[in-house]
Give the backbone structure.
Amino acid sequence: SISEENIPPLQDAFLTDFDKNFIVGAAINGETVDDPVRMEVVTKHFNAVTLENELKPDAMFGYSNSTCPGTEIVELNGEELEVPILDYSRAEHILDKILEWNQANPEKQIKVRGHVLIWHSQTPEWFFHKGYDKAQDYVSIEEMDKRQEWYIKTVLTHFTGPDSKYNGMFY
């Protein structure tokens, strides 16, 4: 008879002598990592996870969808750029749990897929407007390209850069 305890891990069905690096993943969110039962399923059956929404702009701007959460001046390609303040806490909450698992289980690492940084319907409307104010006109294509480049580079550097505690977790 098959019981929950003797069900083999799903990933083992794919990890063969031919391909020991096969990725078998699941989408997770903050509720998943806070639920021990769900995390047991994740850690038993999968060797990779994808964050559901936590790297998308609305989450990274703190779900401040009606107004910009504040701005700061940064340098991008030698030019000053005013940008919204990012809130890494939702993604870090999940990544910290995966990092903790990986440190405790070096033989059974879980990788993270960096999905998705830009998503049309999960980017606050104000991000596309002058002064980050949806009552103002849209910015130019060139300005929008700078904003997207800043966002992608900044998020990637924070989570995958050489000084990031999450360096090496993403694929």
Q: What stands out?
A: The CA atoms of residues 56 and 120 lie 9 Å apart. The first helix runs from residue 30 to 34. The chain has a mean pLDDT of 92. The chain has five helices and five strands.
